[in-house]
Write a structure and sequence with these properties.
Length: 82
């Protein structure tokens, strides 16, 4: 049961990473947010996630993308603390 809870938590974390990246991209495309005004950590996050998946402009399957992001989480691709 614990393993299943951990796997579901990874899925939620991966979906949150994807949603956050999408939100940043939307704000930038609408001119509401400019990269020069973003915190260095936010820019690093955006740069790191840019290579993981494309902007979601229309509905499409995301299961493979979700698994790829989960793999990045498991590989500790993001530094959580300095």
């Amino acid at each position: 049961d614990c393993l299943r809870v951990l796997e579901l938590t990874e899925q939620v974390a991966a979906a949150l990473i994807m949603a956050t990246h999408q939100a940043l991209a939307l704000r930038q495309r609408q001119g509401e947010m400019k990269p020069a005004t973003l915190d260095a950590g936010v820019c690093a996050f955006a740069d790191r996630t840019d290579g993981l998946f494309e902007f979601l402009g229309e509905d499409r399957r995301l299961d493979e993308t979700l698994q790829r992001v989960i793999g990045e989480i498991r590989n500790r691709s993001w530094q959580l603390y300095a």
